Amino acid sequence: MDIFYPLQIFVNWLVYSLFNLEQGSVIAGAINFFIYDSIKILILLAVIIFAVSYVRTYLAPEKVKRLLSRRFEFLGNMIASTIGIFTPFCSCSAVPLFIGLVESGVPLGVTFSYLIAAPLINEVAAALLWGLFGWKIALLYIASGWIISVIAGYILGKMHLKKYVEDYVYKIKMKQGQKAQKKLQKERISESLGETKSIIRKVFLYLLIGIAIGAFIHGYAPENLLANIAGKGNWFAVPIAVLIGVPLYSNAAGMIPIVSSLIEKGLPLGTALAFMMAVTALSLPEAIILRKVMKLKLLIIYFSIVAVGIMFTGYLFNWIL
Amino acid sequence: MKIKVLGSGCPNCKVLEANTKKALEGLKIKADVEKVTDIAKIMEYGVMSTPALVINEKVVSSGRVLTSEEIKKFLK
């Protein structure tokens, strides 16, 4: 049974009895959809962000560095991508992280796996996908993001790109990092709670706006609106979705509810997934920041390989689902 | 007392700087708060995630935006 079934009963009561809206009318449907989705997604967000933040208190960057140095390639790529699932990535930390990893001897390809997985597999996106499409799709998103990170990092590692890293990166000598202090269980929990609150506060508004637009599309847009222009038959839909996704940054919270309604109106899931991955993984602000440590050529190669990986995933899901 | 906020100028670093100043005011301590944005200098402290707070050349926190209450504990 759906664990959110009681919530649906409550929202039905709220909309049909308390607000006294006519069951079956478009406006009642849209409002019901809006309230139910908002509450459900907020619950999921809180639970998932808390869990991920808690795991993260065990993964301080200094520890990540230790885990990743002296690893063989491929195994290293896999570990790096897995760690990337739990570490979100504020693009302002990208540069020190990149330098820190490269400086301590982590292979470039492994560093890339981490750099790709961290923003690509995003806990807010995972929570939203779970809430709107079910846990299978959320898992599919995490698994395909992980595979993209492993393979793209591995390929980048094999391309001998060291010469395209800005020279000064190799000149920086880090002071032996401080030992990460041991944290008490109580501190871990309060840190995770603080993190959960701050992320939810940050995405809350985007989320409600996104769900509201989604509810509107759900209620008012014609069926099969997108089936003709962006349906499976259109091979350009996937690359175009990725191209649109790149400049849209950090609004995964607002974007996903809208996309979910567009899927109802005929947007294929693979195309939608590719779009959402492009939004979270590739962004212009991140590119500008990474330009400080990577020469333009490396940056372009990096973005292209990730974009190709995302498009491939898009086509794959359109084909199998 | 010498206090440094390490960070490349992202919004989080600005919040940390503001919280630090608030904590200093609250405790009525006079101290210089310096912002370090040069990446090579940041790395010299062995910090891999920003923003970081350095008090008297010792890194007390990295990768988190501390609240002014948390900062007060380090200042005492």
Mean pLDDT of chain A: 84
Q: What distance lies between the first and last C-alpha atoms of chain B, to the nearest angstrom?
A: 11 Å
Question: Care to count the β-strands of chain B?
Answer: 4
User: Structural class of the helices, strands and pairings of chain B?
Assistant: alpha+beta
State the secondary-structure class of chain A: mainly alpha
Shape of chain A: globular
List the topology elements.
The complex is a heterodimer of chains A (321) and B (76).
Chain A: H1 5-18, H2 26-56, H3 61-68, H4 75-86, H5 94-103, H6 108-120, H7 123-133, H8 135-158, H9 168-171, H10 185-220, H11 227-230, H12 237-245, H13 252-264, H14 269-281, H15 284-290, H16 296-320
Chain B: E1 2-6, H1 11-27, E2 32-36, H2 39-44, E3 52-55, E4 58-62, H3 68-75
Parallel strand pairs in B: 1-2
Antiparallel strand pairs in B: 1-3, 3-4
The gist of it:
The complex is a heterodimer of chains A (321) and B (76). By secondary structure, chain A is mainly alpha-helical. Chain A has helices at 5-18, 26-56, 61-68, 75-86, 94-103, 108-120, 123-133, 135-158, 168-171, 185-220, 227-230, 237-245, 252-264, 269-281, 284-290, 296-320.
What would you say this structure looks like, in words?
- The complex is a heterodimer of chains A (321) and B (76).
- Chain A is mostly helical and 321 residues long.
- Chain A has one domain (5-170, 189-320).
- In chain A, 73% of the residues lie in helices and 0% in strands.
- Chain A is built from 16 helices and no strands.
- Chain A has helices at 5-18, 26-56, 61-68, 75-86, 94-103, 108-120, 123-133, 135-158, 168-171, 185-220, 227-230, 237-245, 252-264, 269-281, 284-290, 296-320.
- Chain A is globular, with a radius of gyration of 21 Å.
- Chain A starts with a helix and ends with a helix.
- The mean pLDDT of chain A is 84.
- With 76 residues, chain B is α+β, with helices and mostly antiparallel strands.
- Chain B has one domain (2-75): Glutaredoxin, CATH 3.40.30.10.
- Chain B contains 3 helices and 4 strands.
- Chain B has a 4-stranded mixed β-sheet with strand order 2-1-3-4.
- In chain B, helix 1 crosses helix 3 (68-75).
- Chain B is globular.
- The model of chain B has no long low-confidence stretch (mean pLDDT 86).
- The interface between A and B is medium-sized, with 27 and 24 residues.
